[in-house]
Amino acid sequence: MTKVVRHKFKTIGITDKIDLPEVDLFDLPCKIDTGADTSAIHCERIRLKEIDGVECLVFKLLDKSHPLYTGKDIVTTDFRERKVKSSFGDYEFRYQVKLKLVIFNKTYRVSFNLSNRKKMKYPVLLGRKFLAKKFLVDVSQRDISAELKISK
């Protein structure tokens, strides 16, 4: 006899669109990646800068070729440096920041690795740490939350 498993998780497709209201980015395309441990976002010009005696991380999200690029410097003191394993199996150090992410009309505080994803189709990856205990991934679906947002 097959056991029917009921879950409380929201179904998410293999791609979607998210909002990052703190940095004025809305309907930002993302790829759902259960193979990635941590979420990642494309950025450029990452640098440490001392402002009023405090070490800050300064960066620009996306790049000039992306239609949602604002060119604004994002400045934060809430960051850390993490050793991460790339998809090629190499280790490198990347900065990690927390941003408010809105999907399915719900707000989450998500850790993002800052990385150069210019050659990738999607500027954002949502990884396992964010997805766990919240979402069930249906790889046959796309943009479920974006479609719900449009239909309202």
Please tag this protein with its features.
mainly beta; Cathepsin D, subunit A, domain 1; nine-stranded mixed sheet; two-stranded parallel ribbon; 2 helices
Please characterize this protein's 3D structure:
By secondary structure, this protein is mainly β. The protein has a domain of about 100 residues: Beta Barrel (Cathepsin D, subunit A, domain 1), CATH 2.40.70.10. It is built from two helices and eleven strands. Strands 2, 3, 4, 5, 6, 7, 8, 9 and 10 form a nine-stranded mixed beta sheet that branches. A hairpin with a 2-residue loop joins strand 4 and strand 5. The longest helix has 8 residues. The radius of gyration is 17 Å and the shape is globular.
Helix and strand topology:
Layout: E1 10-12, E2 15-20, E3 25-32, E4 39-51, E5 54-61, E6 74-76, E7 79-85, E8 91-103, E9 106-115, E10 124-126, H1 128-131, E11 135-137, H2 144-151
Task: Briefly say what this structure is.
The chain has 152 residues and is mostly beta strands. It is built from two helices and eleven strands, in the order ββββββββββαβα.
